[in-house]
Amino acid sequence: MNVELRAVTVPLRGPFGAAHGPVTARELLLLALHDEPSGVTGWGEAAPLPSYDGVSGEEVRAALRDCVEPLRVAELGSAADPAARAALLAECAARARLPQALAAIDLALHDLAGRAAGRPVWSLVADSAGVPAPIAVNWTISAPDRAGAAREASFAREHGFTTVKLKVGTGDDAGRLAAVRAAGGPGLAIRLDANGAWRPVEAARWLEVLAPAGVELCEEPVAGVAAIESLAASAPVPVAIDESAADPAALARRRCRAICLKISRCGGIAGLLSDARRARALGYEVYLASTLDGPLGIAAALHAAAVVAPDRPCGLATLALFAERPDPLAPSGGAIPVPSAPGLGDGLEAWYA
């Protein structure tokens, strides 16, 4: 197969505030695997976010270069056959070592297999012909001020979202939460995301302060598996593990109520489905989110979600945060349809031009 890799930097509509620092643009890496005999191309995406996962685009590029040789000698059958695809992914995982790089390869191989078979990826991995229901998603509030947060909460409610996510640990947490609750009304579920910013004592105090406003759950209130488990035992709201889900200890036993899984951090669709099965066996509630992925990453998460059947709305309605780009997977009524075209979906690679 021919292997091509290129980087694209896409600005956001405005700074996306989080405890790990504001994000103003995303560098995404587009991987193309072209099978010359069939003329079929599979597309994948790597979405490292240095401030979030500590992995740079250059590190991912280097990891992907280490995988070029096995991908070049691979044939279409290696993508189409599940056992052969798993073996190729295992070889690439040993070479790349970074899940963000492996995710790009996994997505491209699944896309290639689906396009060759004329079937959407969800039907390949689930071996099902039934059309999946749209995936319920939350709206992420990016405004750093009360008025902006209130406007976004009103927008979410008016457009059918049942859940919003509010970043905390960034300043004026109580004020912004109160504004979101007032604008969203009592029926809107509010999810908090601290990105591990709080210390354990601080997290316990803040959750006590914020809980009366009505909180669905709090993602990663503190950093680290052990600290999350200790806090979750007495927290007044349900706790979900997010960044720390990358730690193997997170799946050694159940640490809290829920776990948030991401295509990029799990190494692609295959890795996410494996982690979801293990998490469910331990008793976690499972849902998915993005790391400000492009449409290939979001589409991959939707295909995976069709198999996982998430327990809570997923954080996948993030393409609207990008400037100068249309949203090819726009939500409607608080849900996003799973792509039905072959592979990951039609024309998604054009977004990266």
Write a compact overview of the structure shown.
With 353 residues, the chain is of the alpha/beta class. The chain has 14 helices and 12 strands.
Shape: globular
- Radius of gyration (Å): 20 Å
Give me the secondary-structure category: alpha/beta
Strand content: 15-25%
Largest sheet: 7 strands, parallel
Helix residue percentage: 25-40%
SSE order, one letter for each helix or strand: EEEHHHHHHHEEHEHEHEHEEHHEHE
Strand tally is: 12
Number of helical elements: 14
Quote the distance from N terminus to C terminus.
22 Å
Q: Tell me the strand order in the biggest sheet.
A: 5-6-7-8-9-10-11
| Mean pLDDT, all residues | 95
Low-confidence stretches: none
Structure description:
The structure is a single chain. The two termini are 22 Å apart. This protein is globular. The longest helix is centred in the N-terminal third of the chain and has 19 residues, at 99-117. The chain is 40% helix and 19% strand. The chain contains 14 helices and twelve strands. α2 crosses α6 (99-117), α8 (146-158) packs parallel to α9 (173-184) and α13 packs parallel to α14. α11 (225-232) links the parallel β8 (217-219) and β9. The mean pLDDT is 95. It is α/β, with parallel strands linked by helices and 353 residues long. The chain has helices spanning 50-53, 57-65, 68-73, 76-80, 82-96, 99-117, 121-126, 146-158, 173-184, 200-210, 225-232, 263-266, 269-282, 295-308; strands spanning 2-16, 23-35, 40-46, 135-136, 139-141, 163-167, 189-193, 217-219, 239-241, 258-262, 285-289, 335-336. Strands 5-6-7-8-9-10-11 form a seven-stranded parallel beta sheet. The chain has a three-stranded antiparallel beta sheet with strand order 1-2-3. A two-stranded antiparallel sheet has the order 4-12.
